[in-house]
Amino acid sequence: MVRTDTERSRVMNSRRLWLLALLVFSATLIPSAGALDQATADLITKTIEQLDLALEQVVYAHVRFPIEDLKSHAHVALNLLEGRRGSDYDPSYSDPGDGIGVVNYVQRIRQAPEIQRAPEETRVVLENALDNVSLYLEQAMNHTLTALKQTQLTPAQGEMRQVLAFLSAAKGRENELTAAGGLLALKTRLGEQGGSPQNSQK
After folding, report:
1. Distance CA 69, CA 71 (A)
2. How far is residue 33's CA from residue 112's CA, in Å, rounded to a whole number?
C-alpha cells in the first residue's frame, strides 16, 4: 500500500506524539537524584523532633536539684536517644517519644535513596556527616550514663552539660558545612537540587 505524503505526515506525527507521551510517563517513574522526596524529609524531621525532646530533658536535667531529679530527666533523655531496643533503655522512666530512638532514626536516614544514589563524592560527604551525628549521639549517651553514676550533684551537672553540647552538635544549624554539621545542615544539603561533586563540601 502506497501512502500519500499527507498520510506519511500523519503517521510520523502520531509516532512523535506516542514517543513524547512515553518519555513524559517514564520521567514520572525516575526520581530526581537531587530532590529530597517527602518520605526522607519526613524521616529527618521526625529525627529532629525526637532529638528536640531529648534536648528538652537534658536542659531540665543539668539545672535540676536534688540529684534524683537530675537523674530522672537523664533517664528519660537516654530512653529517647536509645529507643526501646537499647541496652540502657529503662521502662520504669517515661518516654515522651515514639520509642524508636534517635540513634535508630539516624541509621534509617543512611538508607535514604538520596544518599544511596548520590554521586560518590557527594555521598561520601553525606555519610561523613551522618558519622559525625552518630558520634555526637554516642558521646551524649556515654556522658549521660556517667552522670547517672554520680553521687554528687556538681559532677552530675557537669556531665549533663557535656550531653547538652553533644546533642546540640548533633542537631547543628542549617548554614553549617554539611561535612562538619548536624542534622539540620544535612537536611538542607539533601534538599538542594543537583548536588554536583564540585559543591559537595557545602
Report:
1. 5
2. 12
Q: How far apart are CA 176 and CA 174, in angstroms?
A: 6
**pLDDT reported for residue 199:** 42
Q: Provide the CATH topology of domain 35-199.
A: Four Helix Bundle (Hemerythrin (Met), subunit A) (1.20.120)
Contact 160, 58 (CB under 8 A): yes
For CA atoms 113, 178, 62, 151, the dihedral sign is positive
182 and 169 Cβ atoms separated by less than 8 Å: yes
Grouping H, G, I as helix, E, B as strand and the rest as coil, residue 42 is: helix
Give residue 85's pLDDT band: very low, low, confident or very high (50, 70, 90). very high
Query: Among all chains, which residue has been given the C-alpha cell 535513596?
Result: 113
Spatial separation of the C-alpha atoms in residues 182 and 176, rounded to whole Å: 8
- Grid cell locating 48: 529532629
User: At residue 45, does pLDDT exceed 80?
Assistant: yes
Contacts of 105 (CB under 8 A, 6+ apart): 43, 46, 47, 50
